[in-house]
Amino acid sequence: MRPTRFGFKGLLFYLAMSGAFLASPYSNLFFLLIAFLTLHWALGLFWTLRNLSGVSAELAPIEPAPAGAGQLVRARLHAPRRARFELAVELELEPALDGRRRLRARADVAHGDVEVAIGVPPLPRGIHRLSRACVASSYPFGLFVARRPIAADGANGELVVFPAPVETAAARSGADALSEILGQGGGAAGAVQPAGLRDHRDGDEPRAVHWRASARRGALVVKEWEGGVGQGLELVLDRRCDSEALEQALSIVSAVALLARESKEVLAVHSQGLDATFGAEQRPWRELLRFLAGAEVLDTLGPAPPPVSPAVTRLPAVSRAG
Amino acid sequence: MQGSRALRACLLGLVLVDLVFVQLTEAAALEWLVPLYALTLCSPLLAPLRGKLAYRVLWNAAVLSFFALLVRHASGYDLRFVLQDGLVLAALCQVHLLNNLRDEQRPDLLFFNSFLIAIVTGYLCHDVAYPIAFLAYAPLFVCGLQLYCVIGEGADVEPRATRRILVDGLARSGVLLAATMLVFLFWPRDFQRRGLLAGRLDFSSRAAGFEVGFSESLELERRQNVRISDRVVMTVALLEGARDDVPALWRGATLGATNGKDWWPADARELVSAGGADEPWSWRGDDLVRGRAGHERSALVSVEHVDPEANRLFMPLGTERLRRGAGLVPERVFAEQGGTLRYGIPLRVRPALSYELAIGRDVPAAGGEPRAALPRALAPYAVAPRSRHVAEARDLAAKLAAAAPPGESQHALVARLCAYLGSRYAYLRPGARGAAASLDEFLAGDAGGHCEFFASALGTLLRLSGIPCRLATGFRSSEWDTEGRVLTIRRAHAHAWVEVFDPRAGWYAVDPSPAVSALDGPGLWTRLRMAASKAWARLASFNAGSRDALLAWLVRLPQRSEAWLRAHPLPSGLGGAALVLGLLAWRRRRNAGVAPVVRRYRRTLRRARIERLPGETPRELLARARASRVKPERLAALQAATFDHERSRYAA
Prior knowledge:
Chain A is built from six helices and 14 strands. By secondary structure, chain A is α+β, with helices and mostly antiparallel strands. Chain A folds into three domains: 1-160, Sandwich (Immunoglobulin-like); 163-192 and 229-322, no CATH class; 193-226, no CATH class.
């Protein structure tokens, strides 16, 4: 409970009026008005606390969001017994965002369960911790604001902002994305090349079908890519590079991961501090996105990524480690 | 209505009430306030122009010009006028803010300024219209704050939510006003507190135009900018006797010296050396008495002073005894010539001052010789003015003396002069057009005048006729309440008359003015207004004694209520039954639409002191209750209520 900005001004005004009251001879009318003003403060304090009493709130799990794009954080307010006014859910980010300490969304009138969505502005890549989440109200007079903390831990305790994925025009899967993005690179070392054809098996993506060869053979054949591991994708992310290259590599991984998640593919990522496969029945995608959000450049003398087949795609295309 | 529009409406209402407050203080003539009213009411129409540079430039130029005008106006007067001009400026600022506040700007200043105006005008305005205006102000202030709090710097509020906020604001205003009244009535405080800067806050009103009111001297001149205020000076409650036994004339000062133009108190040293013409006052315990042996008491009244500027203990001429009441300090009472009493307190100190008066029955004045040898003590009151200002009066006195019947008694002469003045000259209210500027002009019949001219004329004619007399200033009121128990005396009742010394009866009052105060009308509206004014005056003059009386009344209330209920069994029974039926109807309405099993379930939750979390099912809640320290019997009740609830919901 603390005074609002309006409350601070009001407090100064109140002190000035009280000073004038004490400085002047007693007057019934002045006393009446000072009593009104004092009670307005006292009842304002009491009513603000009462407006918040019994109110609870919980944050919905916060989904990772790409850098540069805003997102909505949803919260559910529970106001039992009577109608409450101006209930707000506030989030405090660490570090503060452009001087704004708090992000808030309010429910004008709440009775029972109400859902509010807090608009989070575009954030840079990173893991932004919620230093505090609370339900707040300054109703009725806006002189004081009372806050009650709400649980913000685990998936609710941080905003995961992963790298903005690179644009892919036609890719509809992680493999497509990888080929499209790396194809643009023009055969750089480690680029993914068609490795050959094989017979079509159940479960193969229709996009992988090599229609011309299938027509020639009279049976469906699919393309196999170098760097691909069966039905999944595999990438090596070597963080021993400069920051620009790392950002670009992270954006590629981000795009591949998002498309792989959409098309229910599996993606194995090998990097310093991460060596896991993500997808259905594997590690959750959130973990990968969280890793991408927090990934930092490593020294050239730092550890190498886990050893994998040389055929696996390596990002960035050229690392400082050579 | 959307929230932002409702907030705008509240702000507009606040500014309008502020203007009413300022108008009630009479700080500014209506022609100054009419443009402000118009601009306030037009603010919704001017809203689209707020963003335009030319509009803002025009507004700022207008405000600066207005400010310059006010400064020029105020510079010719004293501090009090500066305060009043400041009020007009504050009102102008409010109108300016209202018309220039854009949606993204905060109206904090408008709220603070509005309350400041309410406080300052409360100091200057004692009219009953003030509390009525404040009753309109409070809900606007509270609803405005609530809307401002919800809207803040964020998005607008939907019409439905706005309605709920407004209803909530009205309810809170009622609670706030009721709580304020309780604090006002019962909060212990020093009603005599002088204030840290009391001596430095003395704003003289002498130069601030002219307000009709009690005066300790009399200067005949043509006055402009005259204000007539119905501010209550005091109330007189009749304790014993009949209403007709209480004189209408209440004196505060006597003016025994004159130069034919002005009247002022006679020189005290001269009067003392002459032996004094009035019985002296002396303290006997709590009573201040003066010897008028043989006079029969006709009325006993209780006087309560409300006006903070009144530094006299007003009383009728025939008062024999004054008993001190609440707030009256004997050491501050000073007897003056003419038998009046001055109360030596600084101006602007507002004492809760009350006292009782025993008023004697006057011996009718019926005789006396006009040129009888005067006692030495009366000589100062018989000095005829010799200045050029009384040329017309001297001629008139000679003419009237020539027309006197042989052997005419002093009393008959006084009555004849009085009747002559009343029939010959026109009464004009102070400040009216066509009013005389001097006694000569008045007596020449070219112009009318108010009570001071009539009193001066009679006093001068009597002095020229050798009859000892003096002018008295105070109030004349016959504004009794409908029961005839309380007489209200206002500033507008200020009056001047003549006191003549009758060799047999002593001093008696003669009022030559034919005028009757406009406030004495007995119409319904006037009566209503009087009743409201009376209630407000009682509130404004609330003091420790009033609070004690109220507390005593409250202490007696249960016994009185019980006695009343026993004495009136039928109305009591009917009232009780209506109350019970009302409560039942309220409960029924409150529970309408909620299934009994749900009501039971909620009641059980309340008793178990456990609250449902968002999205929690009754079964989950029951599990949580089991895990927590809920008493076994309450847990069992909760379990039964949960199963009942489920059965009715899913198994029916």
